[in-house]
Hints:
The complex is a heterodimer of chains A (269) and B (280). With 269 residues, chain A is of the alpha/beta class. Helices cover 36% and strands 16% of the residues of chain A. The longest helix of chain A is centred in the middle third of the chain and has 23 residues, at 95-117. The radius of gyration of chain A is 20 Å and the shape is globular. In chain B, the strands form two sheets. Chain B has an eight-stranded mixed beta sheet, with helices on both faces. Chain B has a two-stranded antiparallel ribbon with strand order 6-7. The longest helix of chain B is centred in the middle third of the chain and has 23 residues, at 100-122.
Amino acid sequence: MNDGAQHVVSRLMRESLIDKKVIAGTESAVRPILPALNVVQIGGLSIMDRGHSAVLPLLEEIVANQDEHTQVVGVGPGVRARHILSVGLDLGLPTGALATLAAKSSAQNAYMVSCLLASHGFVYLEAPFIVQLLPAMLAAARGAVFNGIPPYDLWEHPPAVGKIPPHGSDAGSYLVGEVFGARSVILVKDVDGVYDADPKANPGARLIPEIDATKLKRMALSTLPIEPVLLDLLPRARLARSIRIVNGLKPGNLTRALAGEAVGTLIHA
Amino acid sequence: MQPPDNALLTELGKRLVSGSLSDAAIQKATDATPTHAILPWVNVVKIGGQSIMDRGRSAVGPVVAEIVANLERHKMILGTGAGTRARHVYSLAIDLGLPVGVLTVLGTAVAWQNAQMLQYLLAEHGIAFLEPEGFASLPHYLMERGAVICQGMPPYKLWEQNPDVGRIPPQRTDTGCFLIAEVFGARRMIYVKDEDGLFTADPKKDRNAKHIPRISVQELLARDLDDLVVERAVLDMMLNARHIREIQFVNGLKPGQLTAALNGEPTGTIIYSEAAGGRA
Lengths: 269, 280
């Protein structure tokens, strides 16, 4: 059949990549690219905005573990992103513009972290360099720091409710773990994990040590210590099938998480 | 550290700074903010990869001529699809066990090649090609020359999300172009392909397929068709869109359809959203 197009012969030649049967036919195993990698995400509001008293002990813990566990460090934006969201929303800017603006705040935080880790051989990598250079950088340097917010920029998805960009630094760090097939994705926050109710309002709230993402979504908790979009991403995981939330204000938690111990909350696919 | 002085913040701003962004009530409150259309006069036109670019001069030539003829009257962001080389590289990369994010990086290169070729054909009219990083210059080029070219893939790279089923990146050039139109609050989103729009089945494979001139995105999703004229991600995002209320599909192999769509005429197929502003 000659349909007028100049084709390259392939299994998907002339096929509609929208056709459900064609899509289902592509199901097959994925190979992890960097299976020894650990992605550690440092919270913006929860860790960075607290300054040296919270940040420096955590960075010391990262350095102390780097010989045994290769880590790349994602960093969140914190209160400056909240501020620019506020001004941007007041000006009527769309979600994609807000995402682009907020990503600069986490880039600042990531750059500061990379300066503090520079003497230990960590480098700061922008998104294009994550794509091109991360494996080489890990081999040559000791580690890498990246902007936790994914490079969705103007192409950020409009959310179902409101205008806040749904993919923040938790989602971006998780997706780095998924695409490289990382050994673990650890989100470092200022709470011990996910509680069955808001611990600030309910003294009787209990910590959930381990939970299924779909089940957690069904619980519809009024606040979560992570971006809700993670609960949509995890069920579609091929390689990074869980995330662990730990309290970075308590020394030793990150080390335990890297060692595979049950600390904080594990959310799995 | 000093407690922040929030006197300059709006009431919503105070909640954003002190509250949790995952709080549904705060998310809802952001809906009440104004909505500014950044480029309300621009039209986003996506030129299909397999449907137009892969056909070479016989298809691309007339489309280019029609674009040039409209430069004086309609400002256009021209995005390109990927096509058959993307299908080849996706097949190979899937066979090699590579993840969706890597397939997105590979597919982006194909859309980029098509954008470059289109630009060579439009260069004599002063039309520039812009990478996503250069989009801040886009208003200037549109004012000066009436159109710019970009590759259609969203710049998600390794951060592309897995699909529910299979290994193909779910958000490709249809989605990337739609999101450009949405974020700029564009006048129209027009897809130039090689069919007269949407049919009840693939007209290339089923002679009894019937043409659908106009359908709501809600009804189209409810029909749950096996095949569609557009990536499913576009339909999902239309439900959440603040600006783009309808998208149009025209046949680039039939001269005049793109011009008609730019003039606001109902040619091809229009998919529209019933809800006004976000999911109910």
